Amino acid sequence: MEGSVLDLFRVLSLVVAWAIPGTLAMLVVVFAVAAPAFIAAGVILRLHQVLGVRRQGTSPGERRSLELACSVDGDCPPGFMCIDGVCVSMRT
Q: I want to staple 82 with a disulfide (CB 3.0 to 4.6 A). Which of 24, 33, 36, 70 is the partner?
């Protein structure tokens, strides 16, 4: 019985001795790979948004203006007119 308790303590001490450095090493590797991947994903997403806006021919400011509520044409910014209570661009 004493031998099995000593063996258990040896195993536990090995687990503790290797688990902490092993976990830290794994975290370093994971973050070393994940951080650049998240940065690249953010850059790609932003480029997609910017290039998508250029393809559609509207800027984010114009898009927000398209959603403005209005009652008469005077409520809309220049270049827009009021149709069914929404400011709509006069460009086609």
A: 70
